Amino acid sequence: ILQDWFSKMSGPQKDPWARLDAWRYDARITKAANMKRMFPGFTWGIGLFAVACVVEHFVDRAEENHKKLTGGSGGHH
For the purposes of burial, counting CB atoms within 10 Å of the CB of 53, is it exposed (0-12), middle (13-18) or buried (19 or more)? Predict the structure, then answer.
């Protein structure tokens, strides 16, 4: 009796939870896709931050040149 039971248990089984775990093996579910969904505006934020840094660099340089040419402290009053 036990041999029959073990032979039945060792055969192919239908997993009752397979349908619920199927989402884990979907091709769309990857670490990169999850990170992209977790921070949706991250790439835009990094790009705009870089643009702001470049603009600030050139604006500061222009102000320094203006101070050198006028010989003042930069204040108009």
Answer: exposed
pLDDT in tens, 56-72: 999 988 888 777 778 76
Contact 8, 14 (CB under 8 A): no
pLDDT tens for residues 43-52?
899 999 999 9
pLDDT, mean of residues 11-25: 72
Q: Which residue, 54, 76, 11, is CA-closest to 62?
A: 54
Name the DSSP class of 26: -
Residue with tokens 């840094």: 53
Q: Which two tokens stand for residue 54?
A: 């470049």
